[in-house]
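re: the backbone from monday

yeah here it is again, tokenized this time
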């Protein structure tokens, strides 16, 4: 496994721009994994802004969840995962109900998502550097 770099910061604090610049400075091919979903106009605008800021030659996967099942398709040496916070939010929306009393299924889904991703990345024969963004 290559490096795992966790980039933390508040909402709209420049985490994505920082991760992109760090990935670009490696001089290696980059794959960008976007977890955001355009569920309202504000998020649609933010997504379009982020898309415009990314280099056009980067490969992009738009994956609201189940990232591990797509890792094998990534051929680049550098990956930017933007972001874990939205990934968890996407899982919340899958399990949220007005009468939600038991949060166990949601917590298990989050744990499975993260464990599957870590296990899959560790099992890769090639080394990849991962820039993982979260709030």
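seq for it, each position gets an aa:
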């Amino acid at each position: 496994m290559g490096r795992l770099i966790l980039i933390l910061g508040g909402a709209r604090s420049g985490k994505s721009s920082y991760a992109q610049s760090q990935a670009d400075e490696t001089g290696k091919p980059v794959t960008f994994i976007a977890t955001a979903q355009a569920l309202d106009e504000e998020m649609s605008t933010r997504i379009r802004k982020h898309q415009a800021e990314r280099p056009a030659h980067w490969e992009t996967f738009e994956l609201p969840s189940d990232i591990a099942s797509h890792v094998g398709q990534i051929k680049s040496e550098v990956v930017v995962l933007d972001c874990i916070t939205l990934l968890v939010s996407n899982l919340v929306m899958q399990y949220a109900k007005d009468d939600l009393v038991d949060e166990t299924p949601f917590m298990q889904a989050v744990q499975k998502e993260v464990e599957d991703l870590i296990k899959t990345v560790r099992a890769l024969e090639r080394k990849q550097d991962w820039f993982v963004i979260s709030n």
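The helical segments are 15-25, 41-53, 84-95, 104-123. The chain is about 40% helix and 20% strand.
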